[in-house]
Design goal:
Layout lengths: L1 H11 L8 E4 L2 H11 L2 E5 L5 H5 L4 H15 L5 E3 L4 H8 L18
Length: 111
């Protein structure tokens, strides 16, 4: 996962990965990739692992399954959130944030 992160760092002009927070829903790719380059990461538990983590349980059961899944994966995010979307940002802030800027990144060398 390093090449894609390195491309992002170069595009943004950043050299310190500790200044970026990764948000993802996959322990195997998103959280592992962030961990591999020294970034903090937040796991979205309602994503790819949603069925496994949230199936029929109260919050204590979800926390137990989350801890077990992270231990198995060998990557521990700094936090976990139930969902992540543009709408949740608007709802949490009470304001409509500025539109996101999208940049097309070049493919990593050898891709």
């Amino acid at each position: 996962y390093r090449p894609i992160y390195d491309t992002c760092f170069a595009t943004l002009g950043l050299s310190d990965p500790r200044r970026i927070l990764a948000i993802g829903d996959s322990l195997r790719t998103d959280i592992a990739g962030a961990d591999g380059v020294g970034m903090d990461a937040v796991l979205v538990i309602g994503g790819i692992h949603g069925d496994e983590l949230k199936a029929g349980g109260d919050s204590a059961a979800v926390e137990t399954r989350l801890a077990e899944a992270c231990t198995r994966a060998g990557h521990i995010p700094i936090a976990a959130i139930p969902a992540f979307s543009y709408q949740s940002i608007v709802a949490a802030s009470g304001e409509r944030p500025e539109p996101f800027s999208v940049t097309t990144l070049p493919a990593p060398a050898g891709a």
